[in-house]
């Protein structure tokens, strides 16, 4: 099975164990990440290199955590 198909299948399996609120937040996160990826592509097309680096980890207090990111931008030398 191709890796991409397995990732989608695993994500669908995991989502069935989430509450409606959790599923809603995951959809919102996915949409925001899609917009971020589009912005990264536009920045690269405009002549800069973009690296996303974990700046911190947010802990929710009950075992859940998430990585917080900052962009490292390098302008091209044209």
Helices and strands in order:
Elements: H1 3-15, H2 20-45, E1 48-59, E2 65-75
Region (Disordered): 1-20
Biased composition (Basic and acidic residues): 1-13
Explain briefly what this protein structure is.
Helices cover 50% and strands 29% of the residues.
The DSSP helix count reads 2
Distance between the termini: 44 Å
Q: Write out the strand line-up for the largest beta sheet, numbering strands in chain order.
A: 1-2
Which structural class is indicated by helix and strand composition? alpha+beta
Region (Disordered): 1-20
Biased composition (Basic and acidic residues): 1-13
Search tags:
78 residues, alpha+beta, two-stranded antiparallel ribbon, 29% strand, extended
Molecular structure report:
The chain is an alpha+beta fold and 78 residues long. It has one domain. 50% of the residues lie in helices and 29% in strands. It has 2 helices and 2 strands; from the N terminus they run H-H-E-E. The protein has helices spanning 3-15, 20-45, and strands spanning 48-59, 65-75. A two-stranded antiparallel sheet has the order 1-2. Strand 1 (48-59) and strand 2 (65-75) form a beta hairpin. The chain is extended. The N and C termini lie far apart (44 Å). 0% of the residues are buried. The mean pLDDT is 88.
């Amino acid at each position: 099975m191709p890796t991409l198909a397995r990732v989608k299948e695993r994500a669908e399996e995991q989502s069935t164990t989430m509450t409606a609120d959790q599923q809603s937040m995951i959809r919102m996160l996915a949409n925001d990440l899609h917009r971020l990826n589009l912005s990264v592509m536009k920045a690269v097309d405009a002549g800069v290199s973009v690296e996303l680096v974990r700046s911190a980890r947010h802990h929710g207090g009950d075992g859940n955590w998430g990585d917080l990111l900052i962009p490292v931008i390098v302008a091209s030398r044209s």
